[in-house]
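thought: user wants a sequence for this fold. calling inverse folding tool.
action: design(structure=
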């Protein structure tokens, strides 16, 4: 079994040697072994404990409380990791929203605020397509929700709209690159969180609405074709990933 010196562990975990010394002194993380000369050696269980410490620190828990949690005989490491993942995912969503708010404010303060024209908003679509899409949207969704989405889009500047389209494309390409993974994969769900935050520029979907949108990506021929152009089967993959996000993140709100 490999053992790490204190400097090796510090580099591996991205922490300082001084911090590891402190954790040893307070009994939070003591090395499993020492060399004949008395130097600290950290083994696999020490690395796993340090990982838990860093996760709990990310959640702003005091060191004393972290120690009590980890030393509890009933502590379940796997369950703790699952809870860390869920909490960090929720924090990621909140931070993504904050970043989007900052981006919108920066654009508003620094860019041209001229509202979008119909030609710019529906670039590349024929008039008949536009009318059909608008009609279908009102039939499938709450008309008030559709009206709110249109109102938000109409208030965007040209630069905001272009940035929003670019973000949507980047997220979709990222998901296409990960479509061979499980929909619950953390990297997949991180991109789905960005996708949800991207939708919030138009409206704020509930868990049910977001899950239904995923099904629409599969069931609507034109939606399916749009996403499957990025990668065959992407629409179905996004549907599964969105349903997982709705069940594990949105349903708990």
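)
observation: tool returned 253 residues.
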């Amino acid at each position: 079994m490999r053992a790490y010196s204190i400097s090796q562990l510090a580099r591996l975990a991205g922490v300082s040697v001084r911090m590891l010394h402190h954790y040893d002194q307070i009994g939070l993380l003591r090395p499993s072994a020492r060399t004949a000369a008395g130097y600290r050696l950290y083994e696999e269980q020490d690395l796993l404990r340090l990982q838990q410490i860093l996760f709990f620190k990310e959640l702003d828990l005091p060191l004393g409380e972290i120690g009590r949690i980890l030393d509890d005989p009933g502590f379940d490491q796997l369950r703790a990791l699952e809870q860390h993942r869920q909490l960090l995912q929720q924090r990621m969503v909140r931070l993504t929203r904050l970043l989007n708010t900052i981006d919108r404010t920066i654009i508003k303060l620094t860019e041209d605020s001229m509202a979008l024209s119909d030609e710019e908003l529906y670039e590349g679509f024929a008039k008949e397509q536009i009318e059909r899409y608008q009609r279908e949207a009102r039939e499938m969704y709450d008309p008030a929700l559709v009206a709110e989405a249109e109102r938000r889009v109409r208030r965007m500047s040209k630069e905001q709209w272009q940035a929003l389209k670019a973000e949507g494309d980047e997220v979709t390409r990222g998901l296409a690159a990960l479509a061979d993974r499980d929909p619950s994969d953390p990297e997949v769900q991180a991109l789905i969180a960005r996708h949800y935050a991207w939708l919030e520029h138009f409206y704020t979907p509930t868990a049910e609405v977001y899950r239904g949108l995923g099904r629409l990506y599969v069931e609507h021929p034109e939606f399916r074709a749009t996403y499957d152009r990025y990668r065959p089967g992407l629409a179905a993959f996004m549907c599964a990933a969105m349903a997982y996000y709705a069940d594990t993140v949105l349903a708990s709100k």
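thought: summarizing for user.
answer: Here is the designed sequence. The longest strand covers residues 33-34.
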